[in-house]
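sorry for the late reply, my laptop died twice this morning and i had to redo everyting from scratch. anyway the thing you sent over, i finally got around to it. pasting the sequence first so we're on the same page, its 388 residues, then the predicted structure underneath. double check i copied it right bc i was rushing
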Amino acid sequence: MSNYDPKPEDKFTFGLWTVGNVGGDPFGHATRNPISPPEIVHMLAEVGAWGVNFHDNDLVPIDATPAERDQIVSDFKKALDETGLVVPMATTDLFKDPAFKDGAFTSNDPKVRAYALQKTINAIDLGVELGATTYVFWGGREGVETDSSKKTLDAIKWFQDALNFLSEYVIDQGYDLKFAIEPKPNEPRSNIFLPTVGEALGFIGTLDHPEMVGVNPEVAHEHMSGLNFLHGVAMAYSQGKLFHIDLNDQLYGRYDQDFRFGSVMPKQAFYLVKFLEDVGYDGSRHFDAHAFRSSNYGDVKYFARGCMRTYLILKEKAAQFNQDAEIQALLAEIQAGDESLAYLSSGYSADALSKLRATEFDRAALGARDLPYEQLDQLTIELLMGVR
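ok and here's the structure:
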């Protein structure tokens, strides 16, 4: 690969809330002036992105009049037409407004739950109007600070009811739209419902239309809990539930840092990129990250280019890994199987059981087998450091 410039087939996307982030945090005011959605679209086109995603209120303020809404959407569509950017995914802001301080779909107040449904339906309509085929649900306020405040079984039922209602709405409207649940363990709530990929996958199986619902795992959210992001992604993919993915970076056990992709844990990012490329994942590569608070918008562009450039560098490294003779020889040695046991791959049968019972295993030999994982890991590190 002669350069690392993104191409449309890479399907790199950013949210309006990412490059449009103004640099504020709970301890400090904004460090960048707000820029409009059309300006963000043109910035993303300039750096080579393929698409742009949004929460409803990233695009249309929550208190906009109908006339203002129509003008904003018209201006946004014009920017999309001018740049060729697409909108693959949309979502609803159910976390900023004080109305959602106790949750949206899981609020104790049935009026809040109804308002959250109404707001989401309107946002789904907007997303579909702009071309979205995936709709993400991040339940940032779906949770508790104290378990005294909410009956957990009630909250789970309310969450199920909401997604069932919305699934029926999408079916009734004939929309080509699938849902993706985005897990996160904590922040802004002390405990958020469906905190991990595994819990989200289990929850999906309880819904009326599980075929419509998958997951949108995020690097930072799994790393906050000290979990292996690759394993969660692989589990979702193995079940046909990797509907979308959020790429950023994050140190283990910290608050939600949303660093530039691959910037602090490049080895973990490498394994993730290698997995996505090896299995032929064909969805968006969405960067849900923020530039440093110290950055101006020139540096924000460098941040966005950096996310895509790092992905493409790691993609190249993954191909190099797959072609490295020494690495592949080690893997062949490690993964070598005994053809006499191939019958087990067909599953249980009386004949398989009979053969298995009759097999004599040399336990000492099994324990003594050489597994040169240190060598393999060091070769991987050297490859990533550019000395292979």
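Residues 297-323 form the longest helix (27 residues).
thats about all i looked at so far, will dig more tmrw
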